[in-house]
Structure to design on (229 residues):
């Protein structure tokens, strides 16, 4: 059985908008709608939706109830950092569910194929993430902005979500992170790598599985939606 933690606690600072980015309309629907729709129709058993405390009532009535999402079993308030939001969502997941998926609702173009492939891989590998090979040459730079290394592009991947874990792996990694007091983690694969030495297997993603972060991304998302109709 599978729980999906969907993260929607962003503030929209980089979007330069008074409205949180998950509620900005794209294609006539709030951004959060699209990933919720895919997960609600998938094989996951429950969705735990993490949002800002002040948005919980709005999300319940204007998103979950309005669009009839039946698998959203809990809506919880997020933390100041992404990892805190994941930890809060994890504590609310049904204890019977042994696989945990984590997805950013700012990625509206997740597909059912990505979800199914991730579930299958997590059962084998304990931890996995959707990802795509990088297209561009990457440079490592020093503190002065001078390139000091050009890593082999064939070994570089751009990490996306969903990220999927066997429950005990994610819980133990987050507990060790909490005890450590560290705040420099950017996603959950980094947490399990650092604190449990569990590597994440790459699952094929898509270059259309973009993260909507800046105003330019809205334009791209609108174009992708138009092309899929």
């Amino acid at each position: 059985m599978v729980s999906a933690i969907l993260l929607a606690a962003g503030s929209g600072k980089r979007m330069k908008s008074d409205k949180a980015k998950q509620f900005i309309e794209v294609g006539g629907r709030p951004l959060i709608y699209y990933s919720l729709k895919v997960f609600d129709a998938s094989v996951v058993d429950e969705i735990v939706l993490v949002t800002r405390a002040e948005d919980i009532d709005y999300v319940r009535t204007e998103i979950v109830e309005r669009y009839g999402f039946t698998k959203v079993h809990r809506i919880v308030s997020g933390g100041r950092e992404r990892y805190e939001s994941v930890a809060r969502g994890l504590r609310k997941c049904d204890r019977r569910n042994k696989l945990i998926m984590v997805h950013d609702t700012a990625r509206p173009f997740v597909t059912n194929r990505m979800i199914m492939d991730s579930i299958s891989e997590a059962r084998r590998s304990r931890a996995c993430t959707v990802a795509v090979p990088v297209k561009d040459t990457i440079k490592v730079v020093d503190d002065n902005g001078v390139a000091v290394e050009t890593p082999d592009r064939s070994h570089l991947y751009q990490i996306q979500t969903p990220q999927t874990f066997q429950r005990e792996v994610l819980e133990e990694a987050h507990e060790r992170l909490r005890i450590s007091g560290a705040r420099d983690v950017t996603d959950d694969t980094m947490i399990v790598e650092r604190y449990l030495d569990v590597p994440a297997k790459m699952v094929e993603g898509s270059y259309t599985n973009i993260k909507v972060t800046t105003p330019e991304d809205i334009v791209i998302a609108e174009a992708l939606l138009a092309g899929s109709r």
Remarks:
- The mean pLDDT is 93.
